[in-house]
Amino acid sequence: MQRLRPFLILTVLAGGLLATGFKTVNYMDGDAVMAKVRETHGADAEIDVIKMVTVQGSNDPVTRTMISAVQKDAKGNSMYLLRFLSPEDEKGVSLLVLEKDGGDVDQYLYVPTMGAPKKIAPSARSSNFMGSDFTYEDMRKEKPGEWTYARLEDEKIDNTDCYVIISDPANKEREKITGYTDRVIYVDKATYDVRRIEFLDSKHKLIKQFDAYDYELTNNVTQRPHRGEMKNPGKKTNTVMMLLNSRINKPVDEKFFTLDTLQHWGLDQDKIIADLVPSTPAAKTP
């Protein structure tokens, strides 16, 4: 798929037309749509149990279960942790992201058989995470200051009316880190669910595409997709993530997000997982 870079963006419809019999309308630009997405789906704390299945050509699918945890502290800093629960030979492999509000981002990969956690250089964050179709950068939540947003003409995804947003890295450094020149984001106009993201290269050709399905209300707080698929047509691979269980806006101990905890995982951390895993519902198949 090829999408030309937009030079003509829909204009804001403003006042001054009442005298001719026309009414003014409220127009949401790209920034406003994405702000609404964050408002609708944001959470200061969250833990998810996820099944991740990666398919590469004719090879057998690689299936992993992992826990994903997010916590924002009083200063607005964000902490993220991904930790594999299975298979047994990858149990404990972890990705820790420490992100200062409006500041630096540090990422660490911990593989038990390799010793201490290794810091991931910014230049390596566009690499694939553990052979999946997601990069290390994809594992972070959207940070507004790192992207610019503009609105394109509305489209439909599976008969659902969507806002279409073109998102560019805020600067060349950010583009090098992400590996994307543009992203095209499709947002459900009724619910502000992100339905699709297209990742484009410098020639505006499709690198990969993420689709989210089966949005459901979680903990009576906000909606989460229970299935998401990242397709990489160039490599003929795809990775499916299925949400097995979730807990939103119940604080996570900040000790959960330390380099020391990665290496010395204990009963306190296991209890958090145990509280989620036993009640895991059956996931929908990809």
Within the largest sheet, what's the order of strands?
6-5-4-3-2-1-13-12-11-10-9-8-7
Shape designation: globular
What is the N-to-C order of secondary-structure elements (H for helix, E for strand)?
Answer: HEEEEEEEEHEEEEEHH
Main β-sheet, in a few words?
13 strands, antiparallel
Mean pLDDT, rounded to whole units? Answer: 84
* Beta-strand percentage range: 35-45%
Helix content: 10-25%
Q: What is the count of DSSP helices, taking H or I runs of 4+ residues?
A: 4
End-to-end Cα distance? 23 Å
- Gyration radius, rounded: 20 Å
Low-confidence stretches: 1-25, 278-286
Q: Which structural class should the secondary elements be placed in?
A: mainly beta
Strand tally: 13
Which SSEs are present, and which pair or pack?
Elements: H1 30-41, E1 45-56, E2 62-72, E3 78-86, E4 94-99, E5 105-110, E6 118-119, E7 147-157, E8 160-169, H2 172-178, E9 182-188, E10 194-200, E11 206-218, E12 222-232, E13 237-248, H3 259-263, H4 267-276
Antiparallel strand pairs: 1-2, 1-13, 2-3, 3-4, 4-5, 5-6, 7-8, 8-9, 9-10, 10-11, 11-12, 12-13
Quick structural summary:
The chain is mainly β and about 290 residues long. It is built from four helices and 13 strands.
Characterization of this structure:
There is one protein chain. The chain has 286 residues and is mainly beta. Helix content is 12%, strand content 41%. The protein has helices spanning 30-41, 172-178, 259-263, 267-276, and strands at residues 45-56, 62-72, 78-86, 94-99, 105-110, 118-119, 147-157, 160-169, 182-188, 194-200, 206-218, 222-232, 237-248. It has a 13-stranded antiparallel beta sheet. Strand 4 and strand 5 (105-110) form a beta hairpin. It is globular, with a radius of gyration of 20 Å. Residues 1-25 and 278-286 have low confidence and may be disordered.
